[in-house]
Each structure stands twice: as C-alpha cells, then as structure tokens.
Amino acid sequence: MKKRVPFEFASRIKYLPPYLFASIDRMKQKAIEKGADLIDLSIGDPDIPTPSLIVNAMKEAVEKPFNHRYPSYEGMLSFREAVARWYKKRFGVKLDPQTEVLSLIGSKEGIGHIPLAFVNPGDTVLVPSPGYPVYSTGTLFAGGRSYTMPLGEENDFLPDFDIIPKKVLLKTKLIFINYPNNPTSAIAPTKFYKEVVKIASKYNIIVCHDASYTEIYYDKEPLSFMQAPNAKDVGIEFHSLSKTYNMTGWRIGFAVGNREVLAGLGKVKTNLDSGVFQAIQEAAIVALGMDNDILSAIRKTYHERRDVLYNGLRKLGMHLIKPKATFYIWVKVPSHFDSMGLVTHMLDKAGVLATPGNGFGETGEGYVRFALTAPVDRIQEAVKRISGIL
Ligand SMILES: *Cc1c(COP(=O)(O)O)cnc(C)c1O
Known about the structure:
Bound molecules: pyridoxal-5'-phosphate
Radius of gyration: 21 Å
Largest sheet: 7 strands, mixed
Strand order of the largest sheet: 2-8-7-6-5-3-4
C-alpha cells in the first residue's frame, strides 16, 4: 500500500505552546524506572480520599435507574438549589438557582469553553501570568488573543490595571482572574474586586473569576468576587468541588453570577456535552450540605503540611511567602538556578519533584511551585534532602 501523507493537526492545536508538564512527566517516569524514592510535590491533586459521606451518597445514587439517563445540561434543579444555599451561607450572596447557577463537568470545562461563547477571532482576553494554562488555551481555541497581565510579588501577585494600555482595554472582551491563586497562593482583598468591577463596567468586559480554592485556607475565609457590589452585572465565578472535597476525579463544578454570561456558556454546552452524571450531582448535593467539621479537618492537614514546608524552606534560606490559602507554596529559586534548573537538580539529586514556575507562563520564571499533596513525614523528608543539595 502507498504510504499516506501524515494527518496534520489543526493549527489551533499545532501551535499550542509546548506543554512543559509533559516533559516533567517523562523526567518523573525515568526517575521512577531508575528506582528513585520519589517525593512528588508537583501535582495539584489531593492525596486525601473523598470523604466517605460523599462516597456513600454516590453509591446510593448510582443504583437509581432515574440517574442512568441523560442529565440536563444546566444541572438538576436540586443541585443548583444546593449551590445557591451554600453560596448564601458561605458568602452571603443570593443566587437564583434557575438562572444564576450552571453545573459544569469540573470548572476546567467551563473555563475552557467560555471564550467560545463570547470571544470572536481577534478579540482580546486578559489572562494572568503565572496562571492556570486553560485561560490562554481556551482563548486560543476561540481564535482570541491573550494579553498577559503579569503577577509580581511587588504587587502582591495582583494584576496592575494601570499598566494595561487603553487601546488594549478597548479591544478586550473578557478577563480571567483567580484568587486564591494557583500557583502563587495569593489572595485578593475587597478593594481589588471593586477595582475589577469598575474597569469591567467602564470597558464592557466580562469578568470570569476562577474561585476553585476559596475553601482551602489557613486563617481568614477568602472572599467571593460576587461579594463585590455590582459584580453580578459584569461577570461570573467558577467553583469546583475538586479541591474542596478531594473530588478531582469525579468531575463536577459550577459557575454562578451574570445570567446572560451563563446563558452563553450554556448554549455552548448544550451543543457539546450533555451535562454531569446525575449520581455525581446527588453526591455533590451531600458534599455542599456537609458539616463544616470534615472540611476543617482537611484544612488542618494542609495547615500542618504548610508549616513544615514553609518553615523548612525558610531555614534553608529560600525566599517564599507564607500562603494564606491554596495548597501551594510559590518559592523563588536561588539566583544561580533558573526554574527548570532547580526542578531538575532537586529531582536528580534529592528525588523531590516540584513544578517549574515558567510552566504557568513566562512571568513564572524564577519560581518553583510546591504542592502540599503528600503526608507530613514525606514533606519533612523532602526538606531534609533539599538541605543537602543547595
Ligand atoms: C484545579 C484547578 C481548576 C480545575 O478544577 P476542576 O474543577 O477539577 O476542573 C481550575 N482552576 C484552577 C486554578 C485549578 O487549580
């Protein structure tokens, strides 16, 4: 048979920036094959199991034939009502479950799809750097252009709107923000959210706030963007059950806020997916109504781990900020390394894996991210090993 011409990827995926995490995965596999006792602090995926209350609710729900059929794309009304109750209790914000709550197959699904609903080819989308990579890939898939908002330590890892040229703002359709922030672990004050509402109203920009980490905090409860006056006029907020309830594999999240924006996202979803398995939605209702004790215990676990890693790395003379939220620590690399250099050095010489900051965008160069997704004794061991190689 004649050898055929290779199938060519569409340019929208062909020109994706190289996925740094894939090469780290290869490095990791190699180290494991060589028999390294690897301490993996690179992944934002909780090592703690889903609380049994939720697992048991799922077992019951999966037995019901009613749940075996197509769900509705916007989510069961009972799930959306549970979200509205949780929101009122947690943030004091009232939501109409019929029009101001939309279920998602994980928040990543909604974040990736929202530009398809509102961004035309050539439109500008403001994205933070460092930042969760889906903001810019979702933009790229819609034909939009990402404009980078650098998040620097000098500005508490908040974007500085004053340095964005007016002509960029005039072409901007949508902005992504994310607090508590992955990867920097920064949180945002009320003043910042007010500023976002102001700029979004002035330039008619849709605000998409990724709030995946509001429940992973150490002292004070982080805010919701929706608590800012008039936030609902300009945007939506994404939430996820993944990080809060150790449910990353279950795939359920939700978006709340502006009904026109949610209707646009819903329109994309009706044409691409058929919603979240209802059994998962039923389990999620139980999760959202759960006693705060279970969540406090999860937070306590991260608290202990944070203290061990933060104090340990500080003692080694490393420069880092004590996280107030998220399960990440954002660490400046010593000046004789770059991000990838330090990651490779720690992996080769200490069997400790962290994520290079530049994997989250160029502005992340010069940092590495540690995830607190390993038990305390392993984190202690990691610090000990790093102390021998710096
Ligand atoms: C983990 C994560 C998500 C995605 O969460 P899912 O609900 O599991 O899709 C979204 N945003 C950020 C910043 C994350 O770290």
